Amino acid sequence: xxxxxxxxxxxxxxxxxxxxxxxxxxxxxxxxxxxxxxxxxxxxxxxxxxxxxxxxxxxxxxxxxxxxxxxxxxxxxxxxxxxxxxxxxxxxxxxxxxxxxxxxxxxxxxxxxxxxxxxxxxxxxxxxxxxxxxxxxxxxxxxxxxxxxxxxxxxxxxxxxxxxxxxxxxxxxxxxxxxxxxxxxxxxxxxxxxxxxxxxxxxxxxxxxxxxxxxxxxxxxxxx
Length: 224
Ligand SMILES: *[C@@H]1O[C@H](CO)[C@@H](O)[C@H](O)[C@H]1NC(C)=O
Ligand SMILES: *[C@@H]1O[C@H](CO)[C@@H](O)[C@H](O)[C@H]1NC(C)=O
Ligand SMILES: *[C@@H]1O[C@H](CO)[C@@H](O)[C@H](O)[C@H]1NC(C)=O
Known about the structure:
Blueprint lengths: L1 H15 L9 H10 L2 H5 L8 E8 L2 E5 L4 E2 L10 E5 L10 E7 L13 E11 L7 E6 L19 E9 L24 H7 L7 E7 L2 H7 L2
Parallel strand pairs: 3-9
Antiparallel strand pairs: 1-2, 1-4, 4-7, 5-6, 5-8, 6-7, 8-9
One 2-acetamido-2-deoxy-beta-D-glucopyranose binds next to loops.
């Protein structure tokens, strides 16, 4: 049991060393999504037009940047994450965006009876400044309807994928009633981001990224 667990943990850590910097090409992100079987598991069409840069602020330390498929210790994912758009060569200044994050591996990648868990839905993301540059930070003009939920895969589970998707926000989106605030943990279970996008006219995601997080127990095994 311990050996299997140790192997899983070491495996996850060896993955981490492959991805150190933020992504620089949409082709790289698309390939990472396909390798991790995300489009098929989420039933989405994923043809990123630009990069979604996600960063996790750390208390009293340097923020942790995400590249697609990076393995992060749970402790670094408290968030809420910050978002930026990279390699954008055609978005309108006044454009608003919706960002969603889901876990398709709950309670475990082998038993997904609770999936997807909704980890975030926020709308009214706009560019912080109108300046065109390589990376353009986003800010939200309204409170997220489903605030950031820190990854917490259950003890003994293999690592989970946490997937971020960004969409162009259609007019009237904030009147949607598919996702509403409150309802506790149960309200976050059995979410379907593709169905949500369809019901609220979001279309296909235009960028995305993902992180991989192991249960806390994994970290204690690694430090032995
Ligand atoms: C799958 O997970 C659910 C929720 O935790 C649990 O109730 C169920 O027994 C699990 N099924 C199997 C086959 O392990
Ligand atoms: C933006 O989102 C954060 C949480 O992610 C929230 O605390 C903040 O109030 C939101 N900003 C506005 C202007 O609503
Ligand atoms: C959204 O709801 C508000 C308040 O109920 C209403 O004034 C507005 O017209 C609605 N917008 C759309 C696009 O449906």
